[in-house]
Structures are given as C-alpha cells and as structure tokens.
Amino acid sequence: MARVGGPGLVLLWPGLEREVRVSLRLVCLDLFCPEALTRDGVSVCVKATAVAAVASPVCFAVRTGER
Questions:
Q1: Strand pairing of 43-44 and 36-37?
Q2: What is the DSSP-derived secondary structure letter of residue 65?
Q3: How far is CA 53 from CA 6, 24, 34, 40, 60, in A?
Q4: Measured between alpha carbons, how far is 27 from 51 in angstroms, rounded to an integer?
Q5: How far is residue 64 from each of residues 53, 56, 59, measured CA to CA in Å?
Q6: InterPro entries in the record, alphabetically (predicted)?
Q7: DSSP secondary structure string, 1-64?
Q8: Are 61 and 22 in contact (CB under 8 A)?
C-alpha cells in the first residue's frame, strides 16, 4: 500500500506500512569535462550545471528500490 503522508505527525500501521523519507529539495550537480582540442587546435573546456528535483515521491521510492 502506497500513500503519501504530509508534514507533521503521520500514523503507520505496524507490519503493514513502512516509512520511506524522500527529500524534495533541489539538487544541483556541477558537471565538468576535461579540456579538449577542436579540429582547428583550440582548447575548449565546458562547464555545466544540472538541477534535479523529485516530482513524485511514490514513483521515486518504487523505482529506486527504497525500503
């Protein structure tokens, strides 16, 4: 049985339900690649940032196997 409990006190049935905590915060990942040379001999370095967040706590817990 999957249900989402909001903030505050949430009661669980022992043996039937279990608690899985999922962080809903934004996660920032800095992506770096080593310097590379282009065909014309110019050195290029690319820096990027990826931002990720959990859209559905139930899907996240099921797909990642959180227990």
A1: antiparallel
A2: T
A3: 17, 6, 27, 39, 10
A4: 6
A5: 14, 12, 8
A6: Band_7/SPFH_dom_sf
A7: ------SS-----TTT--------S-EEEEEE---EE-TTS-EE--EEEEEE--S-HHHHHHHH
A8: yes
pLDDT, position 67:
59
Nearby residues of 4 by Cβ (< 8 Å), 6 or more positions away? 57, 58
Phi, psi (5° rounding) for residue 36?
Answer: -130, 155
Distance in angstroms (rounded) separating the CA atoms of residues 18 and 27: 25
State the Cα–Cα distance between residues 40 and 16, nearest whole angstrom.
64
Give residue-wise pLDDT tens across range 5-45. Answer: 878 888 888 888 888 888 889 999 998 888 999 999 999 99
